[in-house]
Amino acid sequence: MTISSVQILSPPAAIDDPSRSKTTTSKLANKIALVTGASKGIGASIGKHLGAAGATVIVNYATSQSGADKIVADIRADGGQATAIQGEILNASTILD
Fold it and tell me: For 29-80, how does the pLDDT look when each residue is reduced to its tens digit (9 = 90+)?
């Protein structure tokens, strides 16, 4: 099997520096990011970075409401928009109800 060349791209500056102020010129402005497992660990970090890059972040959590609320507060404190929604992503009816 042959692998073709891979181009390595640098992330946008806002992703590199979550404290950078958001502008309406951000590639993620007016976009919504649903981040599952966002109340802790890697999901929390991804949510914070997406918020810093201008996306409105939906912090999805299964059990840790306090963790999700903290991530939402962190995103908002950095000037981003976020909200927490509880639900098991494998069961869409828990999120849509």
Answer: 899 999 998 888 999 999 999 999 999 999 999 888 999 999 999 999 999 9
Asked whether the beta carbons of 37 and 57 are under 8 A apart, the reply is no
User: How far apart, in whole angstroms, are the C-alpha atoms of residue 85 and residue 56?
Assistant: 13
The burial of 78, by beta-carbon neighbours within 10 Å (0-12 exposed, 13-18 middle, 19 or more buried), is given as: middle
Q: How many residues are recorded in the chain?
A: 97
Angle, helices 65-77/41-52, rounded to nearest 10 degrees: 30
Structure tokens that stand for 41 in this block: 């660990």
